[in-house]
Amino acid sequence: MEETKRIEKLTKELLGEIGENVDREGLLKTPRRVAKAWEFFSKGYTQNINKIINGAIFSEEADDMVIVRDVEFFSLCEHHLLPFFGKAHVGYIPNGKVIGLSKIPRIIDMYARRLQVQERLTHQIADSIKNVLEPKGVAVVMEGRHMCMQMRGVEKQNSFASTSAMFGKFKNSVETRSEFLSIINRRSD
Ligand code: ZN
Q: What is each CA distance from 41 to 5, 98, 114, 132, in whole angstroms?
C-alpha cells in the first residue's frame, strides 16, 4: 500500500533525526514494522459501525440493564501519539432492541484505533450505542493509563484517568446510575 511505503520512509527519517544509525542491523526492518503497526493502530478510520454490527440487533421486550464490563482497550493519544489503555465498561437499558454482546468490544475497538482523547472516545462509544439501539439509557465509563503522562514522568500521580458519558436513565436517575457504578466496581474474584 502507498501509505505504508510513505510511513516506512518517514520512520526511517525519524530514526535518523533522533541520532540513530538507520543502517544498523537491529533497525533495518524497523520502518517496515512501524508502518505495519500504524496500519493496525489506525484501522478504525476505515471501519464503519453498520459493518461491525452486521445485523446483530434483535427485538427484546425485557428492559433490564445490560452491562459489559472490563473490556480492555488500547488507543493512542492525539497529542503525543503515545498509547493510553485500560478498561471500558458499557451499560444500556433496552427499549425493544438489544445488540449482540460481542459487538460492544468491537465498537470500542473501532473508535480506539484512531487518534483519540479519552473523553471523546468515551462519548463516541456511548453515542454510537445510543444511535443504533435508541435505548432508555446508555452509560460508558473508561479508566485509562496514559503513557504520555507516565513515561515522561512529570505527572505520574495523575496518570490514571477516568471518564464517563451518561445518557437517558443513567443521567436522570441516581438509582440507575448507582446500580451501574456498583456493578462495574464490584471485584470480579
Ligand atoms: Zn498525550
A: 16, 29, 7, 25
What's the chain's average pLDDT?
Answer: 94
Query: String of b and e for 122-148 (b: at least 16 CB within 10 Å)?
Result: bbbbbebbbebbebbbbbbbbbbebbb
pLDDT at 111 over 60: yes
Q: 118, 123, 124, 143: which one is catalytic? A: 118
Specify whether 123 is catalytic. Answer: no
Residue 81: alpha-carbon gap to chain centroid: 14
Catalytic residue, from 77, 89, 116, 124: name it: 77
What pLDDT does 56 receive?
94
Give the Cα separation of 65 and 132 in Å (integer): 17
Is residue 74 within 8 Å of residue 83, measured between CB atoms?
yes
Task: Say if pTM beats, i.e. exceeds, 0.85.
Answer: yes
